[in-house]
Amino acid sequence: MEETKITEKITAKYPDLILDSHTFRGDATVTVKKGCGLEFFDFLRKDPEFSFDFLMDITAVDYLGRKTERFEVVYHFFSMKYKHRVRIKIPVCEKDCQVQSLTSMWKTADWYEREIWDMYGIKFEGHGNMKRILLYEEFQGHPLRKDYPVNKRQPLIGPLN
Question: Which of 13, 58, 97, 125 is least surrounded, with the fewest CB atoms within 10 Å of its CB?
């Protein structure tokens, strides 16, 4: 399916959720409201024209001072059947820094969501094991936030027994 058809169909199905959509260099991108819910992602996965059955990646971006909402959670989906892809973006404000977990639909979301929590401090509501995955539990802060102090000293931990 052509990229513009992907964005058009998503926009037609969920006009109240869509904040922006565009295509660029063969990539379809749709920005949706934070409360889009699992029904939206279920549509992407189960619609026979889309079949976005593979969650390739989830990441986050910190736009400190450059956008209204400080963060964006970015999902990359791929259809194994049709070989097309879509990028879904969800803006997230700093005060309510959480989005819905997709672990119930894609098991691969587990580690991606934990990494985003660890590095950016964005929580995933409904995630069954929201704890650090790259850093130790005593680590203070989230190092990929733009306002994280580069020279911050972390608590020392002793050897593991």
Answer: 125
Locate 116 and state its tokens.
Answer: 């985003």
11 within 8 A of 21, measured Cβ to Cβ? yes
Measured in residues, the chain has a length of 161
Cα 20 to Cα 113: distance, rounded to the nearest angstrom: 23
User: What's the whole-model pTM score?
Assistant: 0.92
User: What is the token pair recorded at 101?
Assistant: 């977990």
pLDDT, tens digit, 9 for 90 and up, residues 76-85 = 999 999 999 9
Tell me, letter by letter, the H, E, C secondary structure of 17-45. Answer: CEEEEEEECCEEEEEECHHHHHHHHHHHH
Integer CA distances (angstroms), 4 to 43, 84, 129, in order: 17, 12, 37
For residue range 73-120, what is the model confidence (pLDDT) as tens digits?
Answer: 999 999 999 999 999 999 999 999 999 999 999 999 999 999 999 999
Domains of the chain: 3-102 (3.30.460.80)
